[in-house]
């Protein structure tokens, strides 16, 4: 009986995927240091949320909403809150899930064992499975403050309110020309 249980458990282990890295799941948004989220980002605090849309959709949204005509769309996008001038930059960030799948490796060994071809056998390597997860990271600054999302920033609350509204509008809008008429 123990042989069957150990065989079943080893078969289950070898046929499953072993996760190496799991991308974070963000239900609404996070405000965290960019470097902490992904090393390639800056050390400033960032407003980060999952992007379920296709690549460059946020670029098209920002370009249309702020009438940028494809100039400086990623950096120094100007906006005003209560008459105060702010700027934001955004980054499209990919964090893939990684897992190792041992099933091709195990099946090739079992096939070679069944056929008796060990000398010239091709043994498949364990495969790497990847699932991409995309996020948008937005940093906000002004002429007065380098980082408007810092916890001790004077404009943190109004900027967060603006970014939450921006995120909601982006996710709910499918035709970005509608945004022009809302403004």
Give a description of the structure.
The chain is built from six helices and eight strands; from the N terminus they run H-E-E-H-E-H-E-E-E-H-E-E-H-H. It is of the alpha+beta class. The chain has a five-stranded antiparallel beta sheet with strand order 2-3-8-5-4. A three-stranded antiparallel beta sheet has the order 1-6-7. It is elongated.
- What is the CA-atom radius of gyration, in angstroms? 24 Å
Figure out the total of helices. 6
The largest sheet has its strands arranged as 2-3-8-5-4
Ends apart, CA distance between termini? 71 Å
Helix content: 25-40%
Number of strands: 8
Features:
three-stranded antiparallel β-sheet, alpha+beta, 6 helices, single chain, 183 residues, five-stranded antiparallel β-sheet
Task: Write a short abstract of this structure.
With 183 residues, the chain is of the alpha+beta class. The protein has helices at 2-15, 34-37, 57-65, 103-115, 156-172, 177-182; strands at 17-21, 30-33, 45-50, 77-81, 84-94, 97-101, 127-131, 134-141.
Helix and strand layout, with pairings?
Elements: H1 2-15, E1 17-21, E2 30-33, H2 34-37, E3 45-50, H3 57-65, E4 77-81, E5 84-94, E6 97-101, H4 103-115, E7 127-131, E8 134-141, H5 156-172, H6 177-182
Antiparallel strand pairs: 1-6, 2-3, 3-8, 4-5, 5-8, 6-7
